[in-house]
From TrEMBL:
The keyword Hydrolase applies. GO terms for cellular component: mitochondrion. This is Hydrolase. One of its GO terms (molecular function) is omega-amidase activity. InterPro entries: C-N_Hydrolase (IPR003010), C-N_Hydrolase_sf (IPR036526), Nit1/2_C-N_Hydrolase (IPR045254), UPF0012_CS (IPR001110). The keyword Transmembrane helix does not apply. Keywords: Hydrolase. Gene3D superfamilies: Carbon-nitrogen hydrolase. It comes from Cryptococcus neoformans Tu259-1. Residues 19-282 form the CN hydrolase domain.
Amino acid sequence: ILPFSSNTTNMAKIQATPFRLALLQLGGLTASKASNISIAAKAVASAAASSPKPQLIVLPEIWNSPYAVSSFREYSEKVPEVGSKWRSLKESEEGETIKALREMARSSGCWLIGGSIPERDEKTDDIYNTCTVYDPEGTLVAVHQKVHLFDIDIPGKQTFKESDTLTGGSHLTTFTAPFGKIGLGICYDIRFPEMAMIAARQGCIAMIYPAAFNTTTGPMHWTLLQRARAVDNEIYVAMCSPARHPEAAYQAYGHSSVVNPVGDVVVEADHEPTTLYADIDPELLATTRRSIPVTVQRRFDVYPDVSSSFQ
């Protein structure tokens, strides 16, 4: 364990060990949920069989469904409670995608960030864009509901309104694995720096965002936002996108990538199906924070600490 502490009030220690991250930029996704699950399972198995083996595998945003507000309810599934274990629930208590994700994690022996899928709350009938996380035993360890919904209108280029179907989440999410603490966001969440700052001040070594920017917003801001969040907080930032499908109504940007605490793009895909690997090094984070110590120089006597109520 590499400890790194700060004297700044409410700044948690970083406790992490080096680990390998795999981002699965899935291709060939269609309107068939069963086919999409099969594609994801094969990609997870292939990544887990690589050498050196990754400790953490990440799937993209909305990979089991078309990315369309008209599809989210049809493809939605119930997500069980955090802590529920592999094969511990009745058939009615979770959907086919959740079952498959548990099995992917268990059979791969890796931690799995299951991208995001449409979630249905059976009590309220609300639909969420939801990311689930599993340990290598297939236990559900974290659930993040996309907080900030993708409602945009760029004249002559792109109009999209997730809020026509989706409800925004109301909680921030982190999880702790043997290799360190990870913060979660989904796509549009990256545009809101408070989330990454809070995660960093809670001791996260990385923010990971399953995402699906499009060919309008991607060239504008995909890399810029990742580098900004990384430099703001001196943490790793990763975004995992689906590959671009020429026949899809929603054209994903692709370009899954990882940025280090210095702001360097460590690895980046193009728009084709691929798997990216990156080695996450806690020592680089610690060195960066010692060299340019913004995490201990913030003036919370001058402006508010947005993380103070989350400690």
